[in-house]
Amino acid sequence: MLVVKDLVVHYGSIMALKGISFNVNKGEIVCLIGANGAGKTTTLHGVSAITKKTGGQVLLEGKDITQARADRIVKAGLVQVPEGRRVFANLTVRENLEMGAYTRRDKAGVGRDMELVFAIFPRLKERIRQAAGTLSGGEQQMLAMGRALMASPKLLLLDEPSMGLAPMLVDEIFAVIRRISRDGTTILLVEQNAYKALEIADRGCIMETGAIKKSGKAADLMKDPAIIEAYLGG
Fold first, then answer.
1. What are the CA-CA distances from residue 167 to residues 101, 173, 213 (Å)?
2. pTM of whole model > 0.85?
3. 3.40.190.10, 3.40.50.1820, 3.90.1150.10, 3.40.50.300: which CATH number matches 1-76+188-234?
4. Residue pLDDT, tens place only, 123-165
């Protein structure tokens, strides 16, 4: 579904991504893990055109989207949930969800998807008229994910969905990610909680200083002594 070839991103004179290549097959959960500054978020931003690419190619379902604008990429079915949630604080829960569907013209489908979001996140329905800025951190993460689902994505990019959440809420968010995957959405996940990410992923990529150092089946990576020592608590 997604093919990334030799992706390069610069921030000024600094090469943040050094020609990375990977793919995400339809129906998979693929995770990118690594320390702060490894290039995980930059990878998502490069793929979704939030950050300008200086080299390489990105293909979505066989179509070259390397030079496509971010809004065109969303229309093509690739949608990102940003790090830090970034909900529209002054808008209500409903209005935030409606913003997620801004590229769509199928009103009936939008209504059905809003009910689906409420089925996945019942608390959002309870707070439908509440300003997003007054929600808890966990509820804002649910809203950010629900807003992305309103775009009817084929491929969902998740950037640090568990950041800043209590352990119980982390478990809840990862359970939702599994559910979204089972419902047919392909997922590329960036996550510092390496254990949780590898636990639900089909495959993983280990990133260090703008490069992919190792990749493989998630179950195999979880047994790798070097990865256990570096990322899984020894």
1. 30, 10, 29
2. yes
3. 3.40.50.300
4. 999 999 999 999 999 999 999 999 999 999 999 999 999 988 8
Q: Which of 34, 179, 67 is nearest to 119 (CA)?
A: 179
> CB of 153 within 8 A of CB of 185?
yes
Dist. CA 172–CA 118, nearest whole Å:
15
